[in-house]
Amino acid sequence: MQQRQQALRARRAGAAYRQRGAGATAAPSPGQHPFTRGDENARLFAYESRTKEAFDRIEPTLREIATYQYQSDFPAQAQRIARQELGFELPGHLLDHTWPAPPDMRALYAWCVFETFKRFADTFYLEKPLAEPQDGEFQNFLESCGFHIMDVSPCADGRLAHIVRYVLRLPYRAVRRRSYAGAMFDVEDSLQKWMEVELARHREGVPNQAGEPTRYLKAAVYHYSRSDPDREGCAAHGSDADIAALRALSRLQDFRQAVENSFCCGASIDLLLIGIDTDSDAIRIHLPDAHGGIDLERYVDAREAYEATRHVAARDAAQALQRMVSEHAQALEAEPSEGMVRLIARLLMNNISQVDYVRTYFNGRYGDVGHFERFIGMGIGFEEVQLRNLTYFAYLTTVEQGAKDVDVGLKIFTGLNIARGLPAPVIIRYDYHGNVPGARDRAIARCECLGQALKDRFPQESAKGLLHTLLVVRNISEQSSIEVVGGSLEAPGGREDHQ
Amino acid sequence: MQQRQQALRARRAGAAYRQRGAGATAAPSPGQHPFTRGDENARLFAYESRTKEAFDRIEPTLREIATYQYQSDFPAQAQRIARQELGFELPGHLLDHTWPAPPDMRALYAWCVFETFKRFADTFYLEKPLAEPQDGEFQNFLESCGFHIMDVSPCADGRLAHIVRYVLRLPYRAVRRRSYAGAMFDVEDSLQKWMEVELARHREGVPNQAGEPTRYLKAAVYHYSRSDPDREGCAAHGSDADIAALRALSRLQDFRQAVENSFCCGASIDLLLIGIDTDSDAIRIHLPDAHGGIDLERYVDAREAYEATRHVAARDAAQALQRMVSEHAQALEAEPSEGMVRLIARLLMNNISQVDYVRTYFNGRYGDVGHFERFIGMGIGFEEVQLRNLTYFAYLTTVEQGAKDVDVGLKIFTGLNIARGLPAPVIIRYDYHGNVPGARDRAIARCECLGQALKDRFPQESAKGLLHTLLVVRNISEQSSIEVVGGSLEAPGGREDHQ
């Protein structure tokens, strides 16, 4: 709690992102683990800090602009400061006519968040700052371990949004991610995904032929806070790590059972349960036995792996970790497959880089151990969000069914923004397959429906300008960026400034 | 409009269903078409009239009961009349304490509709009054015509709810039906269905092996009213038959395009566009050419088929109709497959029985040419509803996205019931696969969510007792009946009288 207040004070004071991580520096510290990829860490940190700084400059910049609001040249002053500090101009209609009434700083704030998001998304899709040079290598590795897909459901908490690309260091396009509050993924939705994947194998041999003896791997990621377990753990499970793990496991088992019961011919899947300490990004992996049984008490912790191998030469990293996982595996009644052991060793090795990332740039513990998201995301999509604490993301198709997740998001932003008179910026998103006729129109209609439902659910916040929305769609059949299709900040006359 | 008022007056006066169809009689008239299956017609009519009579007895019975409301032995009198007229007792808590305030006749009305529905559903699933002795025969026939599945999307209008079992005389378990307002079926939902079917062929050889050169057949059914085209046509398309046909065709084409674009290896589907005159149940089928092209102007009308073959011996029925369809087919630039011609001929032959059904029992035109539904159905399911004008059905997962369909339903029931002080009875339904762990609990939660959303959307009607709900789930992995899980009429103390 104290941490969060410190972080909030920092944001209020306009402190740059870098300064929040004590001991932060652009160069990797000496003394890091031999397996750690320092270059990659530096690149990832540069991207993370650049991105978050862009969001965190908004508030101090607008505070400065606000001091000019009674001057006759307010629009000119505002644009000058915005250009200088934010790198873009503000929409004219929000600066005009400010002598009879003060400028709508809430609208300006939301507009700047949305504009910054749009620029962030464009950078992501056009410059691909997080792309791996050999995306295909992981898929080959995965198949060599006996799996044709890795489908990950983390908790929707913003502190897990970087799980794929940062925490596990996997190519984000090679792993399916679908986030749910408490990692409580939807079984029916997952069954659809399973069918989709299996049909592609049968019909198209993608990613491999259906005859290949590989399996569908479903992972769930729960989380806890090592330093403040009772308050900064998973809200969906009362901040209780044991319960979070138990429920995620039980959902995994439900999914496997659903596949086994719904399809004949020995249909099944493999399961993986992963826990993450959101303070340090260290993971622990619960080893499944040969029959897929998972014991909540038995896991390999990345911290343990880190310590056990910190004097091993980097070239022996894979073997050393495999040996370690093997020893854990041999203690199980039925030893898991060699492929499963290799995959887990790889995930641990990858995570060691992330453990050092947090050690190097954040002194081993994030400054923002609690919620510190910059905006709420709602709907379907957000592939570009691969950063920690950038977005509280509610994966949903309607507010009606996702009401719980939406309410949690608004509650978080009541603490972060609304209590301070700033709006909760909500980006409503619907990705679509451009090769399906009419899909774009339907995606837009769905965004609008979500926007209206959100407004209906929070009429007071909406009326007071304490909740603003941006409607965004994206054609996932192409590698293009997002498209802004509406929102609460449309200019008079319908011109859309975010286009 | 006049027809509807007559029908309403009949319902008000408590006229039995039979009396609404002028010239109605239990025995088939002489002079019917030689292809008509008179026995089947008699059986279907007995089921239809028996079912609807049960619903239509409710209002006059409650009117009679209401006359006893000031008598000291009101509960006993009410039960006596209910037992005698409806065949069941009323819930005690709705009859008690009626001296300080009159009995809640609205609640009693809704309760009786729900109880009648429950009995109707039990009969359907336990006694199978509409089951065909040889359900498998149609599937074999379909495959011999070159199709492995027939997936039909009619309009959600209650006057099309009998399309499968009555109008087309097909086994309801062998045809997929998914109703949408204006037959505007969801392309993404249909893609999922397509994938499901194809995966079952690949993995399980069900209904046939993926290697078999059969196709997925998607049919859309639009409707119009021959006697009152401007008012009793499809509300979703402004009662304009041409527009209804055009839009249904365009949605079919979108679906085909979506399959072709989303899947490689020559994936495609075949299309069928069917129109129905809701006055007489006569269909018209638009012939697709060899390339799947459909011309809105070119169709074979069942009435034409009826006249052209009325002197042909029944044993030559199939050939005669095939010849007739063939002649139409030859006029197309690219003649459709022989299998398509055979299938269309079969549908026309089946429809001839239905044309005579309406001629025999309703003098060729239904007494209720307009809306005359007995209740609103909302959600996923309702396989048991295979009767005309029994249910206005809104297929939806949330009120938020299905708001338009829900509003139309409430509007219809404002005319039918609310304007007369009677509630709109809404049955909220979610079918689930019992072999998927947790599916029943999720189905119940979805019903409750829908019930709440409906109440939120119509707060005044709900508060006044002019909208009542019954929450129902069904395990479609078993051939069991429905299960009542809640609703607005739960007894004090939570006892559920519909269990």
3D architecture notes:
Two copies of one chain form a homodimer. Chain A is an alpha/beta fold and 499 residues long. Helices cover 44% and strands 15% of the residues of chain A. The first copy, chain A, has 16 helices and eleven strands. In chain A, helix 3 (38-56) packs across helix 13 (338-362) and helix 9 (187-204) crosses helix 10 (241-262). The longest helix of chain A has 25 residues, at 338-362. Chains A and B meet through helix 9, helix 10, helix 14 and helix 15 of A and helix 9, helix 10, helix 14 and helix 15 of B.
Topology summary:
The structure is a homodimer of 499-residue chains.
Chain A: H1 2-12, H2 17-20, H3 38-56, H4 58-66, H5 74-86, H6 105-127, H7 135-144, E1 147-154, H8 163-167, E2 176-177, H9 187-204, E3 215-224, H10 241-262, E4 270-277, E5 283-288, E6 294-301, H11 302-308, H12 317-330, H13 338-362, E7 375-380, E8 391-395, H14 399-416, E9 424-432, H15 439-457, H16 459-463, E10 467-475, E11 483-487
Parallel strand pairs in A: 1-2, 1-3, 3-4, 7-8, 7-9, 9-10
Antiparallel strand pairs in A: 4-5, 5-6, 10-11
